Amino acid sequence: MTTQEIADKLVASCRQGDFEKPYQELYSPKIISIENDGTKEGALVEGFEGIQQKREWWQENFEVHSTEVSDPIVADNWFSLRFEMDTTHKPSGQRSRMSEIAVYQIEDGKIVKEQFFYDE
């Protein structure tokens, strides 16, 4: 698959609310996932096990009311997306909107790196 095809499939899955399917179909087992600059505890994970733990933490701590995903911007082996989310932080009950930019790197037809940028 090309970078554009991978980006389009990820967008389609996210817009359908299926955030699990892309990990199974589009991601490399050697995936690296980084939150912002990766310096805070838990902000850098590797492999499917790390992604699973990260996803479990998210589901335990946030209720997602809605998610909007932009069309991809593609450049060679990279693409980016904008996510807009309406969430409630479960422990505090605080509801808020969040905006982030996600940047993805492709190698050998798979996503090998994702990095998310947002205000904390």
- The stretches of 5 or more residues where confidence is low (pLDDT under 50) are none
Sketch the major β-sheet: 7 strands, mixed
Q: Report the portion of residues in β strands.
A: over 45%
Enumerate how many helices there are, as a single number.
3
Helix content: 25-40%
Rg of Cα set: 14 Å
Order of secondary-structure elements:
HHEEHEEEEE
- Write down the overall mean pLDDT: 94
Backbone structural class: alpha+beta
Overall geometry? globular
Q: How many DSSP-defined strands?
A: 7
- From the N-terminal CA to the C-terminal CA, the straight-line distance is 34 Å
Report what the structure shows.
28% of the residues lie in helices and 48% in strands. The chain is built from three helices and seven strands; from the N terminus they run ααββαβββββ. Strands 1, 2, 3, 4, 5, 6 and 7 form a seven-stranded mixed β-sheet that branches. Strand 4 and strand 5 form a beta hairpin. The mean pLDDT is 94.
Give a quick precis of the structure:
This protein is α+β, with helices and mostly antiparallel strands and 120 residues long.
Keywords:
120 residues; alpha+beta; seven-stranded mixed beta sheet; 3 helices; 28% helix
